[in-house]
Amino acid sequence: MAKVNGKYETIFIVNPNLGEEAITAIVDKFKSLISDNGTIVSVDDWGKRRMAYEINDLREGYYTLIEFESLPSFPAELDRVYKITDGVMRSIIVCKD
């Protein structure tokens, strides 16, 4: 059976109190993880934005949106890595198909 890639997009929010270098390191970590397991279509760094509600007593977060194509099994692994990475406050992965 042929491998079929799916189209996905993910957005994650990083704690802005970590500092520029730590935020850049986390974003680069996920960019490389996604590119190692699929193809990145686009990356949109939204930067620091005010959130609709407080998360861990913070009103702002650093947002990054990544559109990518990968095998259907990869998003579950990406979600697992989001959950164990310190500094990632929230994340979501959506199938665009």
Summarize the structure in words.
This protein has 97 residues and is of the alpha+beta class. The protein is built from 2 helices and 4 strands; from the N terminus they run E-H-E-E-H-E. The protein has helices spanning 20-37, 74-84; strands at residues 6-14, 38-55, 58-70, 88-95. A 4-stranded antiparallel beta sheet has the order 2-3-1-4, covered by helices on one side. The longest helix is centred in the first third of the chain and has 18 residues, at 20-37.
Give the secondary structure arrangement, pairings included.
Blueprint: E1 6-14, H1 20-37, E2 38-55, E3 58-70, H2 74-84, E4 88-95
Q: Averaged pLDDT, please?
A: 92
State the total count of DSSP E strands: 4
Q: Can you tell me the overall shape? A: elongated
Task: Calculate the terminal CA-CA distance, rounded to whole Å.
Answer: 20 Å
Tell me the structural class.
Answer: alpha+beta
Number of helices: 2
The radius of gyration computed from the alpha-carbon positions, rounded to a whole number of angstroms, is 14 Å
Strands ordered across the widest β-sheet = 2-3-1-4
Helicity range: 25-40%
- Uncertain ranges: none
Largest sheet: 4 strands, antiparallel
Q: How much β-strand is present in the residues? A: over 45%
Q: What is the string of SSEs from the N terminus onward? A: EHEEHE
Brief summary:
This protein has 97 residues and is α+β, with helices and mostly antiparallel strands.
